[in-house]
Hints:
- Residues 11-421 form the Ketosynthase family 3 (KS3) domain.
- Keywords: Transferase.
- One of its GO terms (molecular function) is 3-oxoacyl-[acyl-carrier-protein] synthase activity.
- This is Beta-ketoacyl synthase.
- A hairpin with a 2-residue loop joins strand 1 (14-23) and strand 2.
- This protein has helices at residues 29-37, 72-91, 112-122, 130-137, 145-148, 153-162, 177-190, 208-216, 255-260, 289-302, 320-334, 347-350, 357-371; strands at 14-23, 26-27, 44-45, 58-59, 100-104, 169-171, 196-203, 246-254, 267-276, 311-313, 342-344, 373-374, 390-391, 396-397, 402-409, 413-420.
- The strands form three sheets. Strands 1, 2, 5, 6, 7, 8, 9, 10, 11, 13, 15 and 16 form a twelve-stranded mixed β-sheet that branches.
- The protein is globular, with a radius of gyration of 21 Å.
- By secondary structure, it is of the alpha/beta class.
- The mean pLDDT is 91.
Amino acid sequence: MMRAYRDAKGRPLVAVTGMGVVTSLGQGVAENWSALTAGRSGIHAITRFPTEGLRTRIAGTVDFLKAEPMVAPLLSERLAAAAAEEAVAEARIPGDFPGALFIAVPPVEMEWPQRQALAEAAGVSGDITYADLLRAASTRRFDDWHDLFIFGTVADRIADRFGTKGSPISLSTACSSGATAIQLGVEAIRRGEMTAALCIGTDGSVNPESLIRFSLLSALSTQNDPPEAASKPFARNRDGFVMGEGAAALVLEDAAAASARGARILGYVLGCGEKGDGFHRTRSSPDGAPIIAAIQDALDDAGLAPDEIDTVNAHGTGTPENDKMEALGCLAVLGERMRSVPISSNKSMIGHTLTAAGAIEAAFSLLTIATGRVPPTLNYAVPDPAIPLDVVTAARDLPVRTVLSNSFGFGGQNTCLVLAAEPA
């Protein structure tokens, strides 16, 4: 009987027993899935800070949670906590969480409001030196900032809140971070180090500085009006991604342990593939080799053939180069059949949630499996002849057993997951 809980390589099967999601579409799995499959957009004009003079003035911000939105660690923590509460509750795990925490968080640094406060405390109105900032920071007024702006703070607070075991792991692998958090949880369970893992991706970093940085890289869409039409994955007239915020949490368990305690299994993480690309800080290698390798490694890890993938949850940012390279990678691995495999990008509705994206998209992939419904890709009115894919433009009902979920990050940090309804 225990053999049923092992994969083809003899490793423990990794089951998902709980999920939680927060995006600009709303709070909770049900609210998000209803909006997503209905094709509603959460992208809107930014209201939390002035945008006059900016080329991009829209985002998929989460404005309904009580947190200081101009301090990324605080909002990221609040988003992560909300998603984790839902996931742990669904998994029905009593008391402290029995495994480790793996959490993807955005890079943490002081933003302009905090820097301005330090400058004012230092009594400096002109050029500010590092010595000025140190002098201001040494006052008792800023004691809490020491913890707030440390990379591991969000993980420490979430670990304390849910009672996870061992040292909480914070990670940031650019836009593949959320998928990497899941991969680390899968690998830890497979090694037998634990029977459960809480894996989270969170990002609440839509602020002036991050918006301007991405704008300077020419990465963002500048088609501000109407906001919901800006994100156009795979369309010929795509012009960049739209920033978004959100979080997703997945409770992973050794399938044997989950079954023994009577847990409801939502699906399985069968395969993980990861491949780094040192070609450029923002651009993909022009031959697509690292993306191809990440997809192929995920299939090999899952023990599946290319023709066993039913649909693809695309990274699909809406940038001219990324969408083209993702199509190249999918066609290279899945072959000509890829032209008829449904592919969809939820970034057309929630924006690019950055370090949270891989986790959110894994949750949506599992919901696709559970409901047999592939969400649409909005704004695909002008197909790109260079991307010959079956882009889903209206929610499509079909039997789905396996989903390939792609996450490709700046700096060539590529992670792909294979999720399934049942063991291979």
